[in-house]
Each structure stands twice: as structure tokens, then as C-alpha cells.
Write a structure and sequence with these properties.
Elements: E1 2-6, H1 11-22, E2 26-31, H2 35-38, H3 44-52, E3 55-57, H4 63-70, E4 75-78, H5 85-88, H6 92-112, E5 120-125, E6 134-136, E7 140-142, H7 149-153, E8 169-170, H8 184-203, E9 207-212, E10 214-216, H9 229-238, E11 243-245, E12 252-253, E13 255-257, H10 258-269, E14 277-281, E15 287-288, H11 289-300, E16 306-308, E17 311-313, H12 325-331, H13 339-352, H14 358-372, E18 376-378
Parallel strand pairs: 1-2, 1-4, 2-3, 4-5, 5-9, 9-14, 10-13, 11-16
Antiparallel strand pairs: 6-7, 6-8, 12-15, 17-18
Helix pairs in contact: 1-3, 1-10, 4-6, 6-8, 9-11, 9-13, 11-13
Length: 382
């Protein structure tokens, strides 16, 4: 098959493209090469893509570029998005333009080329769930609302039951759970996935929407200070700097290695799915920020220096973990790489890169931007 990967020069897209090539397909990459993600160019993985397959510079908002690329495509992977949760809260127009309008332009193009295309695979995010599901001992399974600024400012970081305001226990998110994004990024990703899936269904084209948890691994952008907590933390540790641990260090995330994500991207192409499928992609294992820092210290062979600042970002969630039952039932089970092995793989790759310290400077600048926009604050008493 000839397969178009829109936004395919990024972290997940580029590795998916190479796996498709290995499987005997003919991938074509189209990417806008956003400097925030790719820097000034010259990235090794992009150079390798150019040697192995056609790579087109084009934006998902450019209908003519999409039409040219879709004319000979048998299937499409849709990756493009602005991805910084914190940044999305003060660059709202830009995020809506790239993520929502871009999806709309792509949807129009998809309808025009529907007779040839046999599958669309969409890269989405667990951010569509917001705080996600939780268990209240009085009211059962509930969906906490966005945490209030007044509570965060007082150091009350945990979500509460929306009915009785009592503490709750976080639960894995199910695909049919209510949507409740709490950031502009999450809102735009929800709109994006619904626009593309709706257009695909109207066109009679099968689609799979993957809601990724926190993806990490070799090839992740080391230049983008607005996303990728592992990338940021490892670079800080290698530079001998302390990690600023937000809130109380107890937020949890489901960290999944990029190669496990790519495996499911490949499986989706030939799964025989007819109706739109929305699938969580995560390990089902929740780790705290403290857990992550300990694992990174082991991977780098150093004592990770950190401090708990009480800083918090408006638009962040407290807990996230995937329910994998539907994923396994639809595309089969795999043995996920555990966090220790995965972080060691990533840390070895980061250590081999030619880091100049500019990424850490960019991270500090991003923190200053968020604080200046009133979105990064510090809890009282910290």
C-alpha cells in the first residue's frame, strides 16, 4: 500500500513510517516541520526518512498540499498537532487553528479522495478525558470536574467527587467515558478526533482513533520545552541541575514506550475494522513523578537531585492511566516494555545526542512564559 503520514516526520510518525517501510509498504511523509518541534533542521531521523522515502514539506491547513499528497494514497495516518498542554492555555488561537481548523481542512480533502482510501488512523490523546474517572465510596464511579484554582492555591491537589466533594480514588479511563478536557489542548484534540472520525464515517472509510497516554522514547524532540516530561527531566539531570517537582510529586501518569505505540499503529492498518474505533493506548500502569525520577536516576547512574516546589499549572490533571481491555480485544495483547527498561533505552539515546544546554534554557523560558501568563502558580506555604 502507498501510505500517507500527515505530520509523519515527528516523534511517533517517523518511527511508524520506518516500520511501514519494513513491512513492505510505500510510506510518504508530509510535515510542516514546526521549528518548536524540529528546531532548525538537520535531525538524524528526518535525514534517514529522506533517504528512505518521499518527504514533503506541507501543512495540514494547506488544502492544495493535501490534495497532491492524497491522490495516490491508499491509507492515511494523521499525526499533526500542536501539543503543549501548558502552552495551549495562552496561545489559544494557534492551537485551535492547527488542531481544529487543520482537521477540518483534512476532513474536506478526505471526502474528496474517499474512493481510494481504505483506512485512516488518527493520533489523539488521553487529554480528551480531562481528570477522568474516579471511585467515590458514596456515589460509585464518578467524573471529577477540573480542579479549582482556589484549591490548588491552597495545596489541595487531589480531585474530589463532583457530588459530595469528598476524596476519590482514580480509576482507568474507558473509551466510552464522558469527555471532560480541562486544557485547550485537550479540547482541540477532542474536536480533532471527532472531526476526522465523523468525516471518515461519512465517506465510508474505516478509521481508528488512538488516545495515547504519555509516550516517550528515542527520537522524541529534545528541543520542545512544552511537552515530554521525560525528555525535559533527563536533560536537566545530565546538566547537573535539580528537577522542579510540581504539586506534591504525587500526580500519576501512564508512561508507554514509543515502540509499543508504533506496534499498535501498524496493527490498525490490517485489523479489518469497519466502524470508527476509539482505543486507549497505554500500559495500564500508573507511576508517580517520584517513581519516574527514581527510575531516571538508575538509568543514568546518578543520584537525581530534585525539590518539591508546590508549583502547579492550570489545565493539568492529577491522574491518568489507560484501561486496555478494548485495545487488547480489538488489536491483540502485547508485552509492554516496563518503565525501567524503557527509560534506560531513552536515557542512553539522550546521552548520545549532542546537547548544548540550550534545551534547558528553552525550558526555563517556557516556565517564565507560563508564570507570566498567570498559568503557573505556587501553592500557599511552599
Amino acid at each position: 500500500m502507498q501510505i500517507l503520514l500527515v505530520g509523519g516526520a515527528g516523534f511517533i510518525g517517523s518511527r511508524t513510517a520506518m516500520r511501514l517501510l519494513e513491512a513492505g509498504h510505500s510510506p510518504v511523509v508530509m510535515d510542516s516541520f514546526d521549528p518548536q518541534i524540529h528546531g532548525d533542521g538537520g535531525l538524524d531521523h528526518v535525514d534517514e526518512l529522506r533517504r528512505q522515502m518521499p518527504v514533503i514539506t506541507g501543512d495540514t491547513r494547506d488544502r492544495e498540499a493535501l490534495d497532491r499528497s492524497l491522490r495516490s494514497a491508499d491509507a492515511v495516518y494523521y499525526f499533526p498537532a500542536s501539543t503543549g498542554t501548558g502552552q495551549s492555555m495562552y496561545r489559544i488561537g494557534e492551537y485551535c487553528d492547527v488542531n481544529v481548523r487543520g482537521a477540518g481542512v483534512f476532513a474536506d480533502a478526505l471526502l474528496a479522495h474517499r474512493s481510494r482510501i481504505s483506512m485512516v488512523v488518527v493520533s489523539s490523546s488521553r487529554a480528551v478525558y480531562g481528570e477522568g474517572a474516579a471511585l467515590c465510596h458514596e456515589h460509585g464511579r464518578v467524573f471529577p470536574r477540573s480542579r479549582k484554582a482556589i484549591d490548588l492555591g491552597a495545596g489541595r491537589f487531589d480531585a474530589v467527587c463532583p457530588r459530595c466533594a469528598k476524596p476519590v480514588q482514580a480509576l482507568p479511563s474507558l473509551e466510552d467515558d464522558a469527555h471532560g478536557p480541562v486544557s485547550i489542548y485537550g479540547i482541540t484534540k477532542l474536536a480533532q478526533e471527532l472531526i476526522v472520525a465523523n468525516a471518515a464515517e461519512s465517506a465510508g472509510v474505516p478509521s481508528v482513533v488512538f488516545r495515547y497516554q504519555n509516550v516517550y522514547g528515542p527520537g522524541q524532540s529534545l528541543k520542545n520545552p512544552y511537552t515530554g516530561i521525560l525528555s525535559i527531566f533527563i536533560q536537566l539531570l545530565l546538566a547537573g541541575e535539580k528537577i522542579n517537582v510540581f504539586e506534591d510529586g504525587l500526580p500519576t501518569r501512564d508512561f508507554i514506550h514509543v515502540d509499543d505505540v508504533v506496534e499498535y499503529n501498524i496493527r490498525a492498518l490490517t485489523a479489518g475494522i469497519s466502524a470508527p474505533a476509539f482505543l486507549n493506548v497505554g500500559t495500564g500502569v500508573r507511576s508517580t513523578i517520584f517513581d519516574l525520577i527514581d527510575v531516571m536516576g538508575k538509568a543514568l547512574g546518578l543520584d537525581p537531585r530534585h525539590y518539591v516546589s508546590g508549583d502547579y499549572r492550570l489545565g493539568d490533571i492529577r491522574h491518568a492511566v489507560a484501561d486496555t481491555e478494548r485495545l487488547f480485544g480489538t488489536l491483540g495483547m502485547i508485552e509492554f516494555r516496563n518503565l525501567d527498561d524503557g527509560v534506560k533505552d531513552f536515557a542512553d539515546w539522550v546521552a548520545a545526542q549532542k546537547l548544548t544546554g540550550s534545551a534547558n534554557d528553552s525550558f526555563r523560558k517556557s516556565i517564565e512564559e507560563m508564570r507570566g501568563a498567570g498559568l503557573l502558580r505556587t501553592a500557599a506555604g511552599r
